[in-house]
TrEMBL record:
Superkingdom of the organism of origin: Bacteria
Name of the protein in its database record: Coenzyme Q-binding protein COQ10 START domain-containing protein
InterPro entries cross-referenced by the UniProt entry: START-like_dom_sf
SUPFAM superfamilies: Bet v1-like (SSF55961)
Organism: Rhodococcus wratislaviensis NBRC 100605
Length: 152
């Protein structure tokens, strides 16, 4: 299943990139619904400083920032600094999880942000795929609203 979401952020690409690759920015986008930990021993990383293609370990997803409910076995498969990253991972709930975020500068100094999420739930959740697609679509719409609001 594929979900896509795009927004225009009223800030230059350098500022937007710095925000979307930093753990603080990622967690701010996801709040208040959830947060994501940094894999143990990798606390000082950002997406643009990780070794590409190397599994980083488990990043725990916490409901409301408190209750662990899933993990992302995180790998950044591709990285083009200030332009895009592509995460290819597995999760406790997902056989396949891909998140590709692309940034594009506009002439007026704003930045286009596009997310493409590809997921395949593990067998027990397969019947819930349409529900998961709606929830993930709403969640990424929330993330985009929070990112846009940060720069307003």
């Amino acid at each position: 299943m594929i979900i896509e979401r795009s927004s225009v952020v009223g800030a230059p690409i350098g500022q937007v990139w710095a925000r979307v690759v930093a753990p603080e920015g990622i967690n701010d986008e996801m709040r208040p619904w959830m947060t994501m930990s940094i894999p143990r021993g990798r606390e000082s990383i950002t997406i643009d400083t990780v070794p590409v293609g190397e599994p980083l370990g488990r990043a725990w997803l916490r409901l409301f920032g408190l209750v662990p409910f899933d993990y992302d076995d995180l790998t950044i498969a591709e990285l083009e600094p200030y332009r895009r990253f592509h995460e290819k991972s597995t999760m406790l709930s997902m056989r396949r999880w891909e998140h590709e975020r692309t940034l594009r500068p506009f002439d007026d100094g704003s930045t286009g942000v596009h997310d493409r999420i590809t997921f395949e739930p593990r067998l027990p959740l397969v019947p819930l795929t349409p529900v998961l697609a709606r929830v993930l679509g709403a969640f990424f719409a929330h993330r985009h609203r929070r990112l846009v609001r940060h720069f307003t």
